[in-house]
Write a structure and sequence with these properties.
The chain has 336 residues and is mainly alpha-helical. It is built from 15 helices and no strands. About 2% of the residues have low confidence.
Length: 336
């Protein structure tokens, strides 16, 4: 049987003034006699405090680096590449001959590697050590610059191509027009009509090398474009660049990094092909030029091909392993 308790409160005796109650246990019977002003207080809204409520310690790039550092093999290979690039400058200092002041000496033709000539001499009697390391520096700078330009242009055009539906037909026709003709034909025409300098060929490789990246990025953007959070962003009036940068780009970083890592050795190989065909200026030493010059003497003097080929192989393997590891680390699905 329930017992009903009747509380007879004298309203005249209730204190209606506001009091600050000390912290401690509040008795139930005390609340029953409190006025509404003392039981409830208006909560002031502060935008900064409201943002802190949903604040997270998660950082995308910190998580990327944490996952990448777990792959010890990729870390070692990245250190190897950095040391290789630094050594291209050190080699010029510790070498006995300056690459810009090499003299032709027929009496020193095809000297095998020794204490005087660490990498031997070429067919003109010039020191091969200084040429190999200067060519390595030139090829790395050219490959990184061209690859970065191709990826940057490809990502920007690919994002717009996939998200802005009005330009899809135009970009598709441009892609088909350029892609259906072998790139080597464009390179040959530009080399013969404009010039064969490293700058011109580098810009040309960027101008025709963005197609693959843009097409890949476009296909991925189409997959993420109509997802719920992007539809909500559009309904809220979010600007185009912010939707692309904040909502879509993080899901593409892994693919972009992988394509960049593969584009760098690919650019060196392409530069070697252009040099072999005589479409690039041979006045500035590069790995492609050294490989081109060594092809006629490989059987009799294999060191002329071994040294530059070993460096090209090292760069290719390094970027492949580091690119795959960094690509996996950049994938948000692998972040915990």
């Amino acid at each position: 049987m329930k017992k009903i308790v009747n509380l007879n409160v004298d309203q005249a005796a209730v204190d209606t003034t506001e009091h600050k109650y000390h912290r401690g246990r509040v008795h139930v019977h005390a609340r029953s006699v409190m006025p509404e002003k003392q039981l409830f207080a208006e909560a002031e809204y502060k935008a900064q405090e409201a943002e802190r409520i949903g604040f997270s310690e998660y950082s995308y790039w910190k998580s990327v680096m944490r996952n990448f550092l777990k792959n010890k093999g990729a870390v070692i290979m990245s250190v190897v590449f950095i040391l290789l690039f630094i050594f291209t400058f050190v080699a010029a200092v510790i070498g006995k001959y300056d690459v810009h002041n090499l003299r032709i000496d027929n009496s020193l033709m095809f000297v095998s590697p020794n204490k005087e000539f660490w990498f031997g001499t070429d067919n003109l009697g010039r020191d091969y050590w200084s040429q190999v390391w200067y060519a390595t520096r030139t090829s790395i700078i050219l490959a990184v610059s061209v690859s970065a330009g191709q990826i940057t242009l490809g990502v920007i055009l690919g994002l717009l191509w996939g998200y802005v539906r009005q330009i899809d037909r135009l970009m598709t026709e441009i892609y088909n027009l350029i892609d259906n003709i072998p790139t080597i034909i464009y390179m040959t025409l530009i080399a013969l009509m404009v010039g064969k300098t490293t700058l011109i060929m580098g810009v040309t490789m960027i101008g025709f090398g963005w197609l693959g990246t843009a097409r890949n990025v476009r296909n991925l953007v189409v997959m993420y474009r109509d997802r719920e959070y992007n539809l909500a962003s559009r309904c809220l009036g979010t600007k185009l660049w912010r939707v692309l940068w904040k909502n879509i780009f993080p899901y593409l970083v892994s693919v972009i990094i992988l394509r960049l890592a593969l584009a760098i050795p690919g650019t060196i190989a392409y530069e070697t092909t252009l040099t072999y065909l005589g479409l690039m200026d041979i006045s500035t030493p590069s790995l492609g030029i050294l490989l081109r010059n060594a092809r006629s003497y490989f059987l009799d003097y294999p060191y002329l091909l071994v040294f530059p080929a070993a460096i090209v192989a090292m760069i290719t393997i390094t970027f492949y392993l580091v690119g795959n590891a960094f690509s996996d680390a950049c994938d948000p699905r692998n972040h915990v």
